[in-house]
Amino acid sequence: MTFDDFKLDDSINEGLYSMGYKSPTPIQQQAIPLILENHDLIACAQTGTGKTAAYILPVLHKILQSDRKGLNTLIIAPTRELAVQIDQQIEGFSYFVNISSIAVYGGGDGVTWEIQKKALIQGADIIIATPGRLLAQLGSGTIKFDTLQHLILDEADRMLDMGFHDDIVRIISHLPKERQTLLFSATMPPKIRDLARRILREPKEVSIAISKPAEGINQQAYSVYDTQKEKLLESILENESYQSIIIFASTRENVKKLGQLLHRKGLSVKAFSSDLEQAEREKIMNEFKNKQLRILVGTDILSRGIDVEGVSLVVNYDSPPDPEDYVHRIGRTARAATQGTAITFINPKDQFKFARIERLIEKEIPKIPLPEGLGEGPEYNPSKFKDEGQKPNRKKFFKKRPGGKPSSHSNHQGNQRPRNNNPQ
Ligand code: AMP
Question: Is residue 132 pLDDT above 80, yes or no?
Answer without folding.
Answer: yes
